């Protein structure tokens, strides 16, 4: 996906009705020794980092339970859409654990430090509407009979992104992801570098031409 230029948006969904991702298999985890657990969680953290580093926008379609590592997977995505009936939570403390695949870092960056601490300290599960009210998800929708309402809304969101200039979108994602980690002056420099990479693109020229000619632009990702 990283190197396929035809890929413009990635949507993560589950094939299991009622479950986005239930997290780690604790029965399997119980059979591991301490070293194996550490290695397993490190690999999981690396996987989430790889997802977060995908150059195109990513959307998590949360149509059911997203618990523990399942919510960490959703947090590794750029955007999240949830059914109102979905259940989400970093529940690790209820099992004698703490989030280990990015949850302690990505949740506070998403909802703020205070709310993140409350959710992690308590291991509380919240529904899609609560998640929306605290900014954990971008959109919440009533669940449908097929059980894929969040996925359908995620597709609609993806279709809003598709017509836009691919390189500009990628550079926008990069600028946000890099800039959020540094002070504002450094962030401005990062934005400037990303903007400079977009200036020589054919799509930028097409965008200007389409505006002058009062027609929709035809972006090609070049």
Characterization of the model:
This protein has helices spanning 26-30, 34-52, 69-75, 103-111, 113-122, 128-133, 149-161, 166-179, 184-198, 202-213; strands at residues 10-12, 19-21, 58-62, 65-67, 79-83, 87-89, 126-127, 139-141. The strands form 2 sheets. The chain has a 4-stranded parallel beta sheet with strand order 1-3-5-8, with helices on both faces. A 4-stranded mixed beta sheet has the order 2-4-6-7. By secondary structure, it is of the alpha/beta class. Helices cover 50% and strands 12% of the residues. It has 2 domains: 10-162, 2-enoyl-CoA Hydratase, Chain A, domain 1 (Alpha-Beta Complex); 166-213, Orthogonal Bundle (Lyase 2-enoyl-coa Hydratase, Chain  A, domain 2), CATH 1.10.12.
> How do the strands line up in the largest sheet?
1-3-5-8
Poorly predicted runs: none
Proportion of residues in extended strands = 5-15%
Integer-rounded radius of gyration:
19 Å
Overall structural domain count: 2
Instruction: Please report the distance between the alpha carbons of the first and last residues.
Output: 18 Å
Query: In the CATH scheme, what's the topology name of the largest domain?
Result: 2-enoyl-CoA Hydratase, Chain A, domain 1
Shape, per Cα inertia axes: globular
- Mean pLDDT across all amino acids: 94
Question: In total, how many beta strands?
Answer: 8
User: CATH superfamily name of the largest domain?
Assistant: 2-enoyl-CoA Hydratase, Chain A, domain 1
Question: What's the SSE pattern?
Answer: EEHHEEHEEHHEHEHHHH
Number of helix segments?
Answer: 10
Q: Tell me about the biggest sheet?
A: 4 strands, parallel
Helix content: 40-55%
Give the CATH level 1 class of the largest domain.
Answer: Alpha Beta
CATH-derived architecture of the largest domain: Alpha-Beta Complex
Structural class category = alpha/beta
